[in-house]
Each structure stands twice: as structure tokens, then as C-alpha cells.
Amino acid sequence: MAKSTIATVFLLLFLAGCSYDHSGNKYLPYPVAQDRPLAYQEKLQAAAHWEVLAANEAEEILKTLGTTSISFNGEELDTDFAKAYKKMLTGHLLDKNIRVLNSGGNHVVKFQVQVVRHTSRDLLNLPAGLMTTMSTGALLIARATSSWNHPGLVVLPIA
Fold this sequence. Notes:
By secondary structure, the chain is mainly alpha-helical. It has four helices and three strands, in the order ααβαββα. It has one domain. It has helices at residues 2-18, 46-65, 80-95, 130-147; strands at 69-72, 99-101, 107-109. Helix 3 (80-95) links the parallel strand 1 (69-72) and strand 2 (99-101).
């Protein structure tokens, strides 16, 4: 009885250790920028990066031009992403007290964006502890069928 209790406690501690969530984990399967706070998104992970880039660009425009008025060249707004980036950049420019006009600003800002499509990265963020749970379940089933008097009892935790 004591051996099984110790084994059960050890197994539970082992499983708890394997369930370390990806937040705060330095060993992610994809690179994470180190120059800003971490932002986790299940999809559209680049949106936070573009927000940081728009803020940086607004800061550089402020340093270069001061609080003058600007307008955007309308040619670059051919994609949904370009429209979204213009909104991000406009928001940061307005936060810096730079007037943004539809046309006729003292300076014209032109930008280009390119949408790059990647393969799905959904499988990179498997739930924490999934592989450990699956391995433990497979081991439990294997032990149940070979060692237990009533191997059918293995399905009780699932029910």
C-alpha cells in the first residue's frame, strides 16, 4: 500500500511539473522578441510585432519632422493588412500630437507592406503536459492489460 501511494504521489508531482505552461517558458518552439513585453496570441502572432513597429515609426517621424501635419499617400492601401497598418500608425502619430490629414499635409508619408503567408503553426502550441498525459495513459493501458486482474477498470477514470 505504501509503495503504491508513494508511486502515485511521485507520478502526480511528475505530471504537475510537465504541465508548465508556455507563458514564461524560455524554450518556445519559435522565436520571441526580447525588446518588448511578451504578448501571446493563438493566431496572428505578428500583429503585436507590427503594433510595436508602428509605434517606433511614429516616434522616428516625430524626431524627424516634429509635430507638423502629415498625410498618407493613398496608393499603398490595396490590402486589408495595409489598411490595418495605416490605422495602427495613424493612432500612434495622433498619440504623439502629429496632425494626420486626408490630403494636403506638410509631408506625405508613403509605406509599403507585404503579406507573407506561412504554413499553419497551430501544432506548435500543444497544450502543456499533453505528451506526458498521453504517454502515461498508454503506459496505464499497457500495464492494465498485462498485469491487472480486471483490465476493464482502466476505463473508469475516462468515464
